[in-house]
Amino acid sequence: MLSVSGCRGIVGDTLTPEVAARFAGAFGTFLKERAGGKPVNVILARDGRAGGTMMHHAATAGLLGAGVSVVDIGVAMTPTAAVLVDDYAARYPGEMAAGLMLTASHNPQQWNGLKCLVAEGGLFGSSASAPTSVHANAIIHRFRGGAFGGAPWDGIKPVTLEDDSSSVHIDRVMAAMEDAGFGDPSQIGSGLAVCVDSVNASGVVGSALALESFGVEEFLHLGSDETGLFPHPPEPTRENLTLPGGLCESVRESDCDVGFAQDPDADRLALVDEQGNYIGEEYTLALSAMAILEARKSLGAAGGANGDSADAMILVTNLSTSRMLDDVAAKYGAKVVRTAVGEANVVEVMKRERAVLGGEGNGGIIWPRVCYVRDSIAGMGLVLWLLSPKGGGRGHKRKLSEVVASIPSYAIQKRKVDLSSKDQAAEAVRRIASAYASERVDTCDGAWVDFGAKRSWLHVRASNTEPIMRLIAEAPTIKEAERVLDEAAAVIGGTN
Predict the structure, then answer these.
(1) 438-451, pLDDT tens digit by residue?
(2) What superfamily would CATH give domain 411-495?
(3) Contact 235, 298 (CB under 8 A)
């Protein structure tokens, strides 16, 4: 599977050493061409899943074959790789820095993939992010056409090993929190008991170091043996975290204040409250925004440091993310800008709008002060601050359930509607846009309809992989969300 997210497949089937080496070589060649003669350093990391060593060696060979230098940081989180790219760009301003993350994100054990990170634009010294669709297509074109150069024997660059990448990442998060007005971040975990599930993957080392840095003394770590064998399906969903012996049960039985669940490359974060209830991923972005805007409010009109002006109150998310973010933004006078679905689309608009925060409803928060990729560690810090007596609790420890209850809740429902061919998707979108022309309609990614005073929305978009339309509706109640979907399905049904 080739997309703006890179290359992904089943190891030993669609994803072989030859495929991995070719894709890495295509990426290396793309970077060399853009570098215009400057040296190129590629940060290489993997998410720790079992079987990843094959991908590691194959990708290393592909990058070296393209004539770029490799900085190998071993098993590391995707946001850690992004922070290291930015760190190298700052250290060596006359050279190009980029990243290649070996991960299949939340996909099952047999999957793996290669995700590219390109450094361009940004604020606070952060720039590394997933490539734009234009750049991603250029990399895919080289991969498919075999258009990548072969370095001669005397053009093979060195491989440098970096074994302190987690510390660089955590230091970046700590500095970001201090600069943004969160006080002393080393105190926010004091008095809080935390349980984390890292699914035996890349988040094991980084999450433990982060919680220690935040001052958390009571810490229960699930999925921390670094085998790369997932103890349960790795996506941090309700179904997977409520399994017997899982995070929800562990939080409840251990009297923890909060539970954090990471996916294998630790760019997503799901939450469990002090009662062991699955809060989920949609709340991660809303709560992180609440923390940042509350800290900014405490600083007054001056805003934060390092160019974070008081009027830069822009939050960015995709069209399919809960409107809880809009409710939080309205409370603090901030503005939400929505984009097409996809991390790269969100980041592109974040950089353009100089946003203070962005992300998606899958538990992925993007805080530019740290990096321009989704970052579970930054999310942990922001949520802990909300609960902490030394932070948002203002002298009192707050319960996560109470903080969550302060945000209006909604129900999101999803469906699929079959089309006889993918070509009919455009007609389905046109019908939706026409049927709801009296409402606010956004057509940057299918058709998104905002029902305004009804506090509900509808998003209809074509699948990228099969002839179906994906229908998502959010409303104050499940019944209303289902009614919206019924109505939309009837409109689209006319295309068959």
Answers:
(1) 999 999 999 999 99
(2) Alpha-D-phosphohexomutase, C-terminal domain (3.30.310.50)
(3) no
